[in-house]
Amino acid sequence: MRKLWFELRSFCFSSGGPISGYWIEKREENSDKWIPVNMSPCQSTYYTVPSLIEDRVYEFRVTAENEAGKGIPSEATKPTKVCRIIFSINQKESFGFFS
């Protein structure tokens, strides 16, 4: 899994009241189709994105929501390649994904 972090400051200005959550979308490189990542609004400013495929390139965007509804999506992130990392902790190998 890939942990996606986004900054709250990009979404602080809201004319409809306090932000109640965030919607995250992803798309693969060379695609125009945005795919929802979370099924309910994320309450935090970070989110673990499941089911990313190693060696593929993704972009992400975030939409803030408040009592007035969903806002305009953020600009897309820079393209992010998911890679496998291998490191040793106490002689054990661990695997993870990062960009």
Structure description:
The chain is an all-beta fold and 99 residues long. It has a single domain, classed as Immunoglobulins (Immunoglobulin-like, Sandwich). The protein is built from no helices and nine strands. It starts with a strand and ends with a strand. The C terminus is likely disordered.
Describe the secondary structure blueprint for this structure.
Blueprint (H helix, E strand, L loop, with lengths): L1 E4 L15 E8 L6 E2 L9 E4 L7 E10 L2 E2 L9 E2 L1 E7 L2 E7 L1
Antiparallel strand pairs: 1-4, 2-3, 2-5, 5-6, 5-7, 8-9
What characteristics describe this protein?
99 residues, mainly beta, Immunoglobulin-like, five-stranded antiparallel beta sheet, two-stranded antiparallel ribbon, 9 strands, 46% strand, disordered C terminus
Give a summary of the structure in a few sentences:
Helix content is 0%, strand content 46%. The chain contains no helices and 9 strands. The strands form 3 sheets. Strands 2, 3, 5, 6 and 7 form a 5-stranded antiparallel β-sheet that branches.
